[in-house]
């Protein structure tokens, strides 16, 4: 890690280095509120997340996998790709 004295710059460097997305950005991208993401975390639903201190982040690769597992097929509109392959409704994903 480079010698960065400003905590804000260190946090930004770490997010970039680990490819972490801010909770607000994920909420906006998938069309829900941050409160919905918080509820999902408590209920064990939604993409896996990273918690550093009090702040919540999402790994870009984990979010891609979660969205991919939630893909619907026109021939089976109520089943996700994951369910058609014998899995259950996507909950937490392992990255």
How would you characterize this protein structure?
The protein has one domain (7-59, 71-84). It is 46% helix and 19% strand. The protein contains five helices and five strands; from the N terminus they run H-E-H-H-E-E-H-E-E-H. A hairpin with a 2-residue loop joins strand 4 and strand 5. The longest helix is centred in the N-terminal third of the chain and has 12 residues, at 7-18. The radius of gyration is 16 Å and the shape is elongated. The model has no long low-confidence stretch (mean pLDDT 81).
What is the structure about, briefly put?
The chain is an alpha+beta fold.
Query: What fraction strand?
Result: 15-25%
The helix content, as a percent range, equals: 40-55%
Give the tally of structural domains: 1
Distance between the termini: 24 Å
Structural class: alpha+beta
What is the CA-based Rg, rounded?
Answer: 16 Å
**What is the tally of helical segments?**
5
Order of helices and strands: HEHHEEHEEH
Strand order of the largest sheet: 1-3-2
Largest sheet: 3 strands, antiparallel
Please state the average pLDDT score: 81
**Poorly predicted runs of 5 or more residues:** none
Show the helix and strand layout.
Blueprint: H1 7-18, E1 20-22, H2 23-30, H3 34-43, E2 50-52, E3 55-59, H4 60-69, E4 72-73, E5 76-80, H5 81-84
Antiparallel strand pairs: 1-3, 2-3, 4-5
